[in-house]
Amino acid sequence: MMGSMTDAAYDLIVIGAGPVGENVADRAVQGGLSVLIVERELVGGECSYWACMPSKALLRSGSALRAAQRVPGAADPDARVDATAVLRRRSSFTSGWEDTGQVEWLQSAGIDLARGHGRIAGERVVEITGEDGSVRRIEARHAVAIATGTTAAIPPIEGVAETDPWTSREATSVTDVPRSLIIIGGGVVGTEMANAYADLGTTVTVLSRGGLLGGMEPFAGELVADALRERGVDVRTGAAIASTVREDDGSVAVDLEDGTVLRAEHLLVATGREPATKDLGLASIGLEDGDWLDVDDTLRVRGRDWLYAVGDVNHRSLLTHQGKYQARAAGDVIVARATGGEVDAGAWGVHAATADLAAVPQVTFTDPEVASIGRTAEQAEEAGLRIRVVDYDLGSVAGASLHADGYTGKARMVVDEDRGVVVGATFVGQDVAELLHSATIAVVGEVPLSRLWHAVPSYPTISEVWLRLLETYGRPTA
Protein backbone atom coordinates (compact mmCIF):
# COMPACT_ATOMS: atom_id res chain seq x y z
CA MET A 1 0.00 0.00 0.00
CA MET A 2 2.72 2.45 1.08
CA GLY A 3 4.88 1.57 -1.91
CA SER A 4 2.12 2.54 -4.33
CA MET A 5 1.94 5.98 -2.76
CA THR A 6 5.65 6.74 -3.05
CA ASP A 7 8.14 7.30 -5.85
CA ALA A 8 10.95 5.13 -4.50
CA ALA A 9 12.05 3.23 -1.41
CA TYR A 10 15.25 2.94 0.60
CA ASP A 11 16.09 1.04 3.77
CA LEU A 12 17.11 4.30 5.46
CA ILE A 13 16.48 7.96 4.68
CA VAL A 14 18.71 10.52 6.38
CA ILE A 15 17.58 14.17 6.45
CA GLY A 16 20.64 16.40 6.73
CA ALA A 17 24.01 15.80 5.04
CA GLY A 18 26.32 17.37 7.58
CA PRO A 19 29.03 15.26 9.24
CA VAL A 20 26.44 13.63 11.50
CA GLY A 21 24.11 12.62 8.69
CA GLU A 22 27.03 11.48 6.57
CA ASN A 23 28.26 9.20 9.34
CA VAL A 24 24.82 7.68 9.97
CA ALA A 25 24.49 6.98 6.27
CA ASP A 26 28.01 5.58 5.93
CA ARG A 27 27.62 3.15 8.83
CA ALA A 28 24.30 1.96 7.46
CA VAL A 29 25.70 1.41 3.96
CA GLN A 30 28.64 -0.49 5.42
CA GLY A 31 26.07 -2.69 7.15
CA GLY A 32 24.38 -3.52 3.85
CA LEU A 33 21.45 -1.08 3.83
CA SER A 34 20.41 1.16 0.95
CA VAL A 35 20.52 4.81 2.00
CA LEU A 36 19.23 8.11 0.64
CA ILE A 37 20.53 11.32 2.21
CA VAL A 38 18.62 14.59 1.72
CA GLU A 39 20.25 18.02 1.87
CA ARG A 40 18.79 21.43 1.09
CA GLU A 41 22.07 23.39 1.33
CA LEU A 42 25.68 22.23 1.05
CA VAL A 43 26.72 18.63 1.58
CA GLY A 44 29.05 18.78 4.57
CA GLY A 45 26.76 20.97 6.63
CA GLU A 46 27.34 23.69 9.18
CA CYS A 47 30.65 22.34 10.48
CA SER A 48 32.35 22.33 7.09
CA TYR A 49 31.23 25.74 5.87
CA TRP A 50 30.15 28.00 8.76
CA ALA A 51 31.36 26.55 12.06
CA CYS A 52 34.18 24.18 13.05
CA MET A 53 36.45 24.43 10.03
CA PRO A 54 36.26 28.12 9.06
CA SER A 55 36.18 29.34 12.66
CA LYS A 56 39.30 27.41 13.62
CA ALA A 57 41.03 28.59 10.45
CA LEU A 58 40.25 32.19 11.46
CA LEU A 59 41.68 31.56 14.93
CA ARG A 60 44.80 29.63 14.06
CA SER A 61 47.00 32.38 12.59
CA GLY A 62 46.68 34.65 15.62
CA SER A 63 47.28 31.87 18.13
CA ALA A 64 50.32 30.67 16.16
CA LEU A 65 51.78 34.18 16.02
CA ARG A 66 51.32 34.76 19.75
CA ALA A 67 52.82 31.35 20.50
CA ALA A 68 55.91 32.32 18.53
CA GLN A 69 56.08 35.73 20.21
CA ARG A 70 56.16 34.03 23.63
CA VAL A 71 59.44 32.37 22.68
CA PRO A 72 62.19 35.04 22.39
CA GLY A 73 63.86 35.03 19.00
CA ALA A 74 61.04 33.21 17.21
CA ALA A 75 58.98 36.16 15.95
CA ASP A 76 58.88 39.95 15.83
CA PRO A 77 57.04 40.98 19.02
CA ASP A 78 55.28 43.76 17.10
CA ALA A 79 54.11 41.57 14.19
CA ARG A 80 50.42 41.37 13.30
CA VAL A 81 48.53 38.78 11.32
CA ASP A 82 47.88 39.42 7.64
CA ALA A 83 44.08 39.61 7.55
CA THR A 84 43.86 39.05 3.80
CA ALA A 85 45.96 35.90 4.04
CA VAL A 86 43.92 34.65 7.00
CA LEU A 87 40.66 35.03 5.08
CA ARG A 88 42.16 33.37 2.03
CA ARG A 89 43.29 30.38 4.10
CA ARG A 90 39.88 30.23 5.79
CA SER A 91 38.16 30.06 2.41
CA SER A 92 40.42 27.21 1.32
CA PHE A 93 39.02 25.06 4.12
CA THR A 94 35.46 25.66 2.93
CA SER A 95 36.38 24.94 -0.71
CA GLY A 96 34.96 28.37 -1.44
CA TRP A 97 31.57 27.23 -0.09
CA GLU A 98 31.31 24.63 -2.86
CA ASP A 99 30.55 20.98 -2.07
CA THR A 100 31.69 18.98 -5.11
CA GLY A 101 34.28 17.10 -3.08
CA GLN A 102 31.76 16.09 -0.43
CA VAL A 103 29.27 14.96 -3.06
CA GLU A 104 31.94 12.83 -4.69
CA TRP A 105 32.63 11.20 -1.33
CA LEU A 106 28.94 10.30 -0.95
CA GLN A 107 29.00 8.70 -4.38
CA SER A 108 32.16 6.73 -3.57
CA ALA A 109 30.56 5.49 -0.35
CA GLY A 110 27.45 4.24 -2.15
CA ILE A 111 25.10 6.81 -0.61
CA ASP A 112 22.43 8.36 -2.85
CA LEU A 113 21.86 12.11 -2.57
CA ALA A 114 18.63 14.06 -3.04
CA ARG A 115 18.98 17.83 -3.27
CA GLY A 116 16.05 19.60 -1.68
CA HIS A 117 14.08 20.13 1.49
CA GLY A 118 13.06 16.95 3.27
CA ARG A 119 9.95 16.74 5.45
CA ILE A 120 8.29 13.88 7.29
CA ALA A 121 4.99 13.12 5.52
CA GLY A 122 3.78 10.26 7.67
CA GLU A 123 5.22 7.10 9.19
CA ARG A 124 8.39 6.11 7.29
CA VAL A 125 7.65 8.57 4.47
CA VAL A 126 9.74 11.60 3.52
CA GLU A 127 8.57 14.26 1.09
CA ILE A 128 11.37 16.03 -0.78
CA THR A 129 10.82 19.39 -2.44
CA GLY A 130 13.55 19.79 -5.02
CA GLU A 131 15.39 22.93 -6.01
CA ASP A 132 13.14 23.14 -9.08
CA GLY A 133 9.96 22.90 -6.98
CA SER A 134 9.28 19.28 -7.83
CA VAL A 135 8.01 17.04 -5.04
CA ARG A 136 8.83 13.38 -4.45
CA ARG A 137 7.64 11.00 -1.73
CA ILE A 138 10.17 8.39 -0.66
CA GLU A 139 9.49 5.40 1.58
CA ALA A 140 11.91 4.32 4.29
CA ARG A 141 11.59 0.56 4.69
CA HIS A 142 13.22 0.56 8.11
CA ALA A 143 14.11 4.00 9.44
CA VAL A 144 14.33 7.75 9.01
CA ALA A 145 17.16 9.64 10.73
CA ILE A 146 16.89 13.39 11.33
CA ALA A 147 20.30 15.08 11.42
CA THR A 148 19.35 18.68 10.65
CA GLY A 149 21.29 20.24 13.54
CA THR A 150 20.58 23.71 14.87
CA THR A 151 20.36 27.34 13.82
CA ALA A 152 21.43 30.46 15.69
CA ALA A 153 18.86 31.70 18.19
CA ILE A 154 18.04 35.40 18.01
CA PRO A 155 17.39 36.76 21.53
CA PRO A 156 14.11 38.58 22.26
CA ILE A 157 15.82 41.93 22.74
CA GLU A 158 14.04 44.95 21.33
CA GLY A 159 15.36 45.82 17.89
CA VAL A 160 17.86 42.97 17.52
CA ALA A 161 16.06 41.12 14.74
CA GLU A 162 15.53 44.38 12.84
CA THR A 163 19.24 45.27 12.87
CA ASP A 164 20.03 42.33 10.55
CA PRO A 165 22.63 41.00 12.97
CA TRP A 166 25.44 38.61 12.17
CA THR A 167 25.19 35.07 13.46
CA SER A 168 28.05 32.57 13.47
CA ARG A 169 27.46 32.06 9.73
CA GLU A 170 28.21 35.66 8.79
CA ALA A 171 31.09 35.85 11.27
CA THR A 172 32.89 32.86 9.78
CA SER A 173 32.24 33.67 6.12
CA VAL A 174 33.09 37.37 6.12
CA THR A 175 34.92 38.77 3.10
CA ASP A 176 35.81 42.18 4.57
CA VAL A 177 37.06 42.71 8.11
CA PRO A 178 34.89 45.22 9.98
CA ARG A 179 36.41 48.16 11.82
CA SER A 180 34.33 47.44 14.93
CA LEU A 181 32.14 44.63 16.21
CA ILE A 182 29.83 44.20 19.20
CA ILE A 183 29.26 40.59 20.27
CA ILE A 184 26.23 39.67 22.36
CA GLY A 185 26.99 36.47 24.23
CA GLY A 186 29.97 35.17 26.17
CA GLY A 187 29.80 31.49 25.25
CA VAL A 188 32.03 29.50 22.93
CA VAL A 189 31.05 31.32 19.72
CA GLY A 190 31.23 34.74 21.35
CA THR A 191 34.66 34.23 22.91
CA GLU A 192 36.18 32.50 19.89
CA MET A 193 35.00 35.20 17.51
CA ALA A 194 36.22 37.91 19.90
CA ASN A 195 39.66 36.28 19.68
CA ALA A 196 39.54 35.96 15.91
CA TYR A 197 38.39 39.49 15.15
CA ALA A 198 40.74 41.09 17.65
CA ASP A 199 43.55 39.34 15.76
CA LEU A 200 42.20 40.65 12.44
CA GLY A 201 42.38 44.23 13.72
CA THR A 202 38.73 44.82 14.61
CA THR A 203 37.78 46.82 17.70
CA VAL A 204 35.72 44.25 19.64
CA THR A 205 33.24 44.59 22.50
CA VAL A 206 31.77 41.52 24.23
CA LEU A 207 28.52 41.87 26.17
CA SER A 208 27.55 38.98 28.44
CA ARG A 209 24.73 38.93 30.97
CA GLY A 210 26.74 36.52 33.12
CA GLY A 211 30.42 35.62 33.09
CA LEU A 212 32.18 34.15 30.09
CA LEU A 213 31.90 30.45 29.24
CA GLY A 214 29.06 29.69 31.62
CA GLY A 215 28.62 26.01 32.38
CA MET A 216 32.37 25.46 32.56
CA GLU A 217 34.58 25.79 35.62
CA PRO A 218 34.41 29.49 36.64
CA PHE A 219 38.16 30.02 36.35
CA ALA A 220 38.00 29.17 32.63
CA GLY A 221 35.87 32.18 31.76
CA GLU A 222 37.88 34.40 34.10
CA LEU A 223 41.22 33.53 32.48
CA VAL A 224 39.79 33.96 28.98
CA ALA A 225 38.28 37.33 29.92
CA ASP A 226 41.62 38.50 31.36
CA ALA A 227 43.45 37.51 28.18
CA LEU A 228 40.91 39.24 25.93
CA ARG A 229 41.15 42.44 27.93
CA GLU A 230 44.95 42.35 27.73
CA ARG A 231 44.58 42.27 23.95
CA GLY A 232 42.29 45.31 23.93
CA VAL A 233 38.87 43.65 23.82
CA ASP A 234 36.21 45.46 25.86
CA VAL A 235 34.68 42.61 27.87
CA ARG A 236 31.58 43.60 29.85
CA THR A 237 30.10 40.91 32.05
CA GLY A 238 26.82 41.48 33.85
CA ALA A 239 25.74 43.59 30.87
CA ALA A 240 21.98 43.95 30.41
CA ILE A 241 20.87 45.14 26.96
CA ALA A 242 17.75 47.29 26.67
CA SER A 243 17.53 47.61 22.87
CA THR A 244 19.43 47.87 19.61
CA VAL A 245 18.88 49.95 16.50
CA ARG A 246 20.45 50.30 13.07
CA GLU A 247 21.53 53.92 12.63
CA ASP A 248 21.16 55.97 9.43
CA ASP A 249 24.90 55.63 8.74
CA GLY A 250 24.59 51.83 8.82
CA SER A 251 26.18 51.33 12.22
CA VAL A 252 24.47 49.52 15.09
CA ALA A 253 23.73 51.21 18.42
CA VAL A 254 23.28 49.06 21.52
CA ASP A 255 21.57 50.64 24.51
CA LEU A 256 22.44 49.07 27.86
CA GLU A 257 20.02 49.21 30.77
CA ASP A 258 22.50 51.37 32.71
CA GLY A 259 22.13 54.09 30.06
CA THR A 260 25.37 53.38 28.21
CA VAL A 261 25.18 53.47 24.42
CA LEU A 262 27.70 51.46 22.39
CA ARG A 263 28.17 51.66 18.62
CA ALA A 264 29.86 49.40 16.09
CA GLU A 265 29.88 48.60 12.40
CA HIS A 266 28.34 45.18 12.98
CA LEU A 267 26.51 43.26 15.69
CA LEU A 268 27.15 39.54 16.21
CA VAL A 269 24.52 37.56 18.10
CA ALA A 270 25.98 34.51 19.84
CA THR A 271 23.41 33.69 22.50
CA GLY A 272 22.70 30.04 21.79
CA ARG A 273 21.17 27.64 19.31
CA GLU A 274 17.71 26.32 18.51
CA PRO A 275 16.71 23.09 16.74
CA ALA A 276 16.36 23.15 12.96
CA THR A 277 12.99 21.37 13.12
CA LYS A 278 10.51 24.15 12.29
CA ASP A 279 9.70 22.88 8.81
CA LEU A 280 10.24 19.13 9.09
CA GLY A 281 6.65 17.94 9.08
CA LEU A 282 6.84 16.66 12.63
CA ALA A 283 3.20 17.53 13.22
CA SER A 284 2.27 14.84 10.69
CA ILE A 285 3.42 12.20 13.18
CA GLY A 286 2.15 13.84 16.35
CA LEU A 287 5.29 15.77 17.33
CA GLU A 288 5.76 19.53 17.68
CA ASP A 289 7.38 21.43 14.84
CA GLY A 290 10.33 23.46 16.11
CA ASP A 291 10.98 21.26 19.16
CA TRP A 292 14.10 19.43 20.22
CA LEU A 293 13.67 15.69 19.64
CA ASP A 294 13.80 13.52 22.75
CA VAL A 295 15.69 10.26 22.19
CA ASP A 296 16.80 7.17 24.10
CA ASP A 297 20.44 6.13 24.30
CA THR A 298 20.22 4.45 20.88
CA LEU A 299 19.13 7.82 19.42
CA ARG A 300 15.62 6.60 18.63
CA VAL A 301 12.90 9.20 19.14
CA ARG A 302 10.82 8.08 22.09
CA GLY A 303 7.52 6.54 21.02
CA ARG A 304 8.57 6.18 17.36
CA ASP A 305 10.35 2.88 16.68
CA TRP A 306 11.35 3.94 13.12
CA LEU A 307 12.52 7.52 13.75
CA TYR A 308 15.98 8.58 14.93
CA ALA A 309 17.32 12.04 15.82
CA VAL A 310 21.09 12.30 15.76
CA GLY A 311 23.45 15.14 16.65
CA ASP A 312 22.58 18.64 17.84
CA VAL A 313 18.89 18.22 17.03
CA ASN A 314 18.39 15.94 20.06
CA HIS A 315 19.99 18.47 22.45
CA ARG A 316 22.13 15.85 24.22
CA SER A 317 25.44 17.46 23.30
CA LEU A 318 25.81 20.27 20.77
CA LEU A 319 29.27 19.33 19.50
CA THR A 320 30.28 17.92 16.13
CA HIS A 321 32.46 15.15 17.54
CA GLN A 322 29.68 14.02 19.87
CA GLY A 323 27.23 14.09 16.97
CA LYS A 324 29.55 11.88 14.93
CA TYR A 325 29.89 9.56 17.93
CA GLN A 326 26.11 9.36 18.12
CA ALA A 327 25.98 8.78 14.36
CA ARG A 328 28.22 5.74 14.56
CA ALA A 329 26.01 4.23 17.26
CA ALA A 330 22.80 5.13 15.40
CA GLY A 331 23.95 3.80 12.04
CA ASP A 332 25.02 0.52 13.60
CA VAL A 333 21.83 0.04 15.63
CA ILE A 334 19.64 0.83 12.61
CA VAL A 335 21.46 -1.96 10.75
CA ALA A 336 21.10 -4.33 13.71
CA ARG A 337 17.36 -3.73 13.98
CA ALA A 338 16.83 -3.89 10.23
CA THR A 339 18.66 -7.20 9.87
CA GLY A 340 17.51 -8.89 13.06
CA GLY A 341 20.91 -8.56 14.70
CA GLU A 342 21.61 -8.27 18.41
CA VAL A 343 21.18 -4.81 19.93
CA ASP A 344 23.77 -3.86 22.57
CA ALA A 345 22.11 -0.82 24.16
CA GLY A 346 23.33 -1.09 27.75
CA ALA A 347 25.72 1.37 29.34
CA TRP A 348 28.84 1.67 27.14
CA GLY A 349 27.31 -0.76 24.64
CA VAL A 350 28.22 -0.37 20.97
CA HIS A 351 24.70 0.86 20.18
CA ALA A 352 24.41 3.36 23.06
CA ALA A 353 25.62 6.96 23.22
CA THR A 354 26.59 6.62 26.88
CA ALA A 355 29.34 9.25 26.74
CA ASP A 356 26.73 11.97 26.24
CA LEU A 357 25.68 11.58 29.86
CA ALA A 358 28.86 12.50 31.73
CA ALA A 359 31.92 12.16 29.52
CA VAL A 360 31.73 14.89 26.88
CA PRO A 361 35.08 16.41 25.82
CA GLN A 362 35.16 19.97 24.51
CA VAL A 363 37.79 22.46 23.41
CA THR A 364 37.20 26.20 23.18
CA PHE A 365 39.86 27.57 20.84
CA THR A 366 40.37 30.88 22.56
CA ASP A 367 43.83 32.02 23.68
CA PRO A 368 44.25 30.57 26.25
CA GLU A 369 42.50 27.41 25.13
CA VAL A 370 39.94 25.75 27.37
CA ALA A 371 39.80 21.94 27.30
CA SER A 372 37.35 20.04 29.46
CA ILE A 373 35.88 16.57 29.93
CA GLY A 374 33.13 15.23 32.15
CA ARG A 375 31.58 17.02 35.08
CA THR A 376 32.56 20.35 36.62
CA ALA A 377 32.82 20.43 40.40
CA GLU A 378 29.37 22.00 40.61
CA GLN A 379 27.84 19.43 38.28
CA ALA A 380 29.40 16.55 40.21
CA GLU A 381 28.01 17.85 43.48
CA GLU A 382 24.58 18.33 41.91
CA ALA A 383 24.76 14.68 40.79
CA GLY A 384 25.19 13.68 44.43
CA LEU A 385 28.83 12.63 44.18
CA ARG A 386 31.21 12.99 47.12
CA ILE A 387 34.07 14.76 45.42
CA ARG A 388 37.46 16.30 45.95
CA VAL A 389 38.67 19.11 43.70
CA VAL A 390 42.39 19.28 42.92
CA ASP A 391 43.83 22.42 41.25
CA TYR A 392 47.31 23.09 39.93
CA ASP A 393 49.02 26.10 38.33
CA LEU A 394 49.97 25.02 34.82
CA GLY A 395 52.61 27.75 34.63
CA SER A 396 54.53 25.93 37.36
CA VAL A 397 54.99 22.82 35.21
CA ALA A 398 58.49 22.65 33.70
CA GLY A 399 57.19 21.71 30.25
CA ALA A 400 54.87 24.71 30.21
CA SER A 401 57.60 27.18 31.16
CA LEU A 402 59.73 25.82 28.30
CA HIS A 403 56.76 25.93 25.95
CA ALA A 404 56.17 29.67 26.40
CA ASP A 405 57.63 32.47 28.49
CA GLY A 406 55.14 33.70 31.06
CA TYR A 407 52.89 30.66 30.55
CA THR A 408 49.57 31.25 32.31
CA GLY A 409 47.09 28.50 32.94
CA LYS A 410 45.32 26.25 35.40
CA ALA A 411 44.35 22.60 35.65
CA ARG A 412 41.55 21.06 37.70
CA MET A 413 40.80 17.42 38.44
CA VAL A 414 37.45 16.42 39.97
CA VAL A 415 37.67 13.11 41.82
CA ASP A 416 34.82 10.84 42.89
CA GLU A 417 36.08 9.96 46.36
CA ASP A 418 33.90 6.88 46.77
CA ARG A 419 35.21 5.21 43.61
CA GLY A 420 38.66 6.81 43.44
CA VAL A 421 38.27 7.86 39.80
CA VAL A 422 38.40 11.12 37.84
CA VAL A 423 34.92 12.30 36.80
CA GLY A 424 35.96 15.67 35.37
CA ALA A 425 38.98 17.66 34.27
CA THR A 426 39.53 21.17 32.94
CA PHE A 427 42.70 22.67 31.52
CA VAL A 428 43.16 26.33 30.60
CA GLY A 429 46.32 27.47 28.85
CA GLN A 430 48.20 27.62 25.59
CA ASP A 431 47.91 24.39 23.56
CA VAL A 432 46.07 22.45 26.29
CA ALA A 433 43.75 20.90 23.69
CA GLU A 434 46.35 18.18 23.25
CA LEU A 435 46.06 17.28 26.94
CA LEU A 436 42.38 16.50 26.65
CA HIS A 437 42.32 13.01 25.21
CA SER A 438 44.37 11.60 28.07
CA ALA A 439 41.78 13.04 30.45
CA THR A 440 38.96 11.69 28.29
CA ILE A 441 40.42 8.18 28.49
CA ALA A 442 40.79 8.50 32.27
CA VAL A 443 37.15 9.57 32.66
CA VAL A 444 35.57 7.15 30.17
CA GLY A 445 37.76 4.27 31.30
CA GLU A 446 37.14 5.08 34.98
CA VAL A 447 40.84 4.53 35.58
CA PRO A 448 41.54 4.33 39.34
CA LEU A 449 43.86 7.02 40.66
CA SER A 450 46.06 4.26 42.06
CA ARG A 451 46.62 3.07 38.48
CA LEU A 452 47.08 6.59 37.09
CA TRP A 453 50.19 6.90 39.26
CA HIS A 454 51.79 4.37 36.90
CA ALA A 455 50.97 6.46 33.80
CA VAL A 456 54.27 8.33 33.78
CA PRO A 457 54.23 11.62 31.81
CA SER A 458 57.24 12.35 29.63
CA TYR A 459 59.59 15.10 30.84
CA PRO A 460 59.61 17.99 30.11
CA THR A 461 56.09 18.25 28.69
CA ILE A 462 52.95 20.06 29.77
CA SER A 463 51.46 16.59 30.40
CA GLU A 464 53.54 16.48 33.57
CA VAL A 465 50.63 18.35 35.14
CA TRP A 466 49.02 14.91 35.60
CA LEU A 467 51.78 13.96 38.03
CA ARG A 468 51.45 17.28 39.84
CA LEU A 469 47.69 16.83 40.19
CA LEU A 470 48.18 13.34 41.62
CA GLU A 471 50.86 14.58 44.02
CA THR A 472 48.53 17.34 45.18
CA TYR A 473 45.77 14.77 45.69
CA GLY A 474 48.07 12.57 47.76
CA ARG A 475 50.11 9.40 47.42
CA PRO A 476 48.26 6.10 47.23
CA THR A 477 48.47 3.81 50.25
CA ALA A 478 48.91 0.06 50.24
TrEMBL record:
- Which residues belong to any copy of the FAD/NAD(P)-binding domain? 10-321
Positions of FAD binding: K56, G118, D312
**Record domain Pyridine nucleotide-disulphide oxidoreductase dimerisation: where:** 360-466
**Which Cys-Cys disulfides exist here?**
C47-C52
The cofactor named in the record is: FAD
- Kindly indicate whether the keyword Flavoprotein belongs to this entry: yes
Bound cofactor: record note? Binds 1 FAD per subunit.
Write down what this protein is called: Oxidoreductase
Give the organism, scientific name: Arenivirga flava
